[in-house]
Here is the input.
Amino acid sequence: MRVHLGSDHAGLELKDHLMNWLVDAGHEAVDHGPFVYDAVDDYPVFCLRAAEAVAAERAEGQMSLGVVIGGSGNGEQIAANKVLGVRCALAWSEETAALAKEHNDANVVSVGGRMHTLEEMTRFVEVFLTTPFSGDERHVRRIGQMSDYEQTRELPPLPDSALTGPDA
Here is the structure.
């Protein structure tokens, strides 16, 4: 599987580690930078490129995934989610990494390089890459609602229970 990576200076060590780990695990790793340490670099520059590559390849039918890395992973997740077709989840445990795929069919994962050990973050990425989407109808429906909104900017209809309220 092709895996696109982007980070900032706070995620550089993990990104470099993951590049080697991914190749050793039989994946094709694509590095979108940074390539040298720069304490004032801007994560959107690199994370948007990684997310764009994932979205473009998935639009062509490839099953590429992405990993974005920063100090906390929050900004990197936000940046990746600005790319049309990307669903990026912040993973801070094995469970959140698995649920990102099982329930949300996320195609990019974000991790915080200053929040966990190298071993923990590597495990989060491994869980994310190997966990399949459940395909449950409720998850498919919810992802469809988000995808439709992303394309049309029309809100999904409110359920009847929201229209009547608890006192009706």
